[in-house]
Amino acid sequence: MTHDLLPLAVALLIAIPAAGSCLGIGLVAARFLEASARQPEFAPQLQTKFFLAAGLLDSAFIIATGVGLWFATASPFP
Q1: Alpha carbon separation from 41 to 30, 37, 45, 50 (Å, rounded)
Q2: Beta strands in the chain (DSSP E)
Q3: Active-site annotation, residues
Q4: Which of 42, 52, 54, 59 is the most buried (most CB within 10 A)?
């Protein structure tokens, strides 16, 4: 029974964080461009903070992908 639902669980474990990561990066990038257009002199400081936020948003997706692939290959549930 659990082996029938394992591919669905792995797909959801990868798809939901991917969608959240894409939305988060899109919103952060839009705000970064808006702030850079309003205050161009702060663009280098904002760029550093943008890349930090983008890295943190992507890390959740990468960790969820790793866990999902581990579930798919190792099958930790009996």
Answers
A1: 18, 9, 9, 15
A2: none
A3: 58
A4: 54
